[in-house]
Amino acid sequence: MRAFIAIDLPEPLHAALADAQQSFRGACRDARWTRPEGIHLTLKFLGEISDAQTKQVVEALAQIGALAPFPVEVKGFGFFPHAHRPRVLWAGVAAQPALAELAANVESRMEKIGFAREDRAFSPHLTLARFQVPRAQPALEAAVAGRATVSLGKFEASEFFLFESKLSPQGAQYRKVMRFPR
After folding, report:
1. Contacts of 138 (CB under 8 A, 6+ apart)
2. What is d(CA 88, CA 70) in angstroms, rounded to the nearest whole number?
3. What is the pLDDT of residue 170?
4. How far apart are the C-alpha atoms of 156 and 122, rounded to whole Å?
5. Mean pLDDT value of segment 56-85
6. In the chain, beta strands by DSSP E
7. CA atoms of 34 and 9, how far apart (whole Å)
8. Which pLDDT belongs to residue 139?
């Protein structure tokens, strides 16, 4: 299965993200918009994994144990790699060091069972749209700049999930395989 590890968002945040996407759509016609109900905070993308690897992943993640709940705020917007040639439009994530510590713990445990460590530092974000061709989007850039400090809401993170991702012409479909801590 195609898998990743992520924190799910509460429904009010999915709705706020859908509203934000709608507000940006008029400024950009060539983006592929993510389905709001599928937006999540990725901790680690695993790719295609076998049943045996799935078992190893579950066992490794179960060792993380209980999480002390920590606040997460969805605030601001930006582009990867940059606004002049964007590949991704994202909503920002502000959180205590507990989020980075969780991501590092997940990364370390996955590396121990054979998954390559990420080349880039963990940069928490929520993907709103992707661009096939990275080219300047001046109207979208202006719309994003006007909402740079807007908060879409906060929530307490206390769990994360192993997700399965099935690709289809209608976009990716996600299924929660296992919740952690169990």
Report:
1. none
2. 27
3. 75
4. 20
5. 95
6. 2-7, 31-33, 41-48, 70-80, 88-95, 125-131, 151-157, 160-166, 173-180
7. 14
8. 94
Distances (CA, A) of 36 to 17, 42, 54, 119: 6, 14, 27, 28
Q: 148-169 pLDDT, tens per residue?
A: 889 999 999 999 999 999 988 7
Question: Which sequence spans correspond to the domains of the chain?
Answer: 2-180
Q: Is residue 171 predicted with pLDDT exceeding 80? A: no
d(CA 75, CA 153): 7
Return contacts of 137-142, CB within 8 angstroms, 24+ apart. Answer: 137/27, 137/28, 137/31, 137/83, 137/86, 139/27, 139/28, 140/24, 140/27, 140/28, 140/31, 140/86, 140/89, 141/79, 141/83, 142/27
Measure the CA–CA gap between 23 and 91, rounded to whole angstroms. 13
End-to-end alpha carbon distance in the chain: 21
Give per-residue pLDDT as tens, 31-53: 999 999 999 999 999 999 999 99
Q: Are residues 18 and 115 in contact, defined by beta-carbon separation less than 8 angstroms?
A: no
Tell me which long-range contacts 117-123 makes (C-beta under 8 A, separation of at least 24): 118/44, 122/43
Q: Which fold has domain 2-180?
A: Cyclic Phosphodiesterase; Chain: A, (3.90.1140)
Active-site amino acid positions: 40, 125
Cβ atoms within 10 A of the Cβ of 103, count?
A: 23
